[in-house]
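HUMAN: Mind sharing a backbone?

ASSISTANT:
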Amino acid sequence: MINYSALELLHRHDDGTAARMTEHNLEEHDPEREMLRGIRRGARLFRCDVCADEVILQPGPETTEEGSA
């Protein structure tokens, strides 16, 4: 499990500057819920504080094949 509070997520802009991304509530973000298709449980939404670009971090797909984790 990732300790998100111990990390700082930055977003690089075209001019080379980097801005902090802060976490936002994924469910409140998209009232139409169309974007939630394919987004797994436990996903977290981060938004750039300067330009509002977004990143969603989510758990990898679960596999059922022997030897996969």
Notes: The chain has a mean pLDDT of 77. Strands lie at 10-12, 18-24, 44-48, 54-57. Residues 45 and 55 are 6 Å apart (CA to CA). Residues 4-57 form one domain.
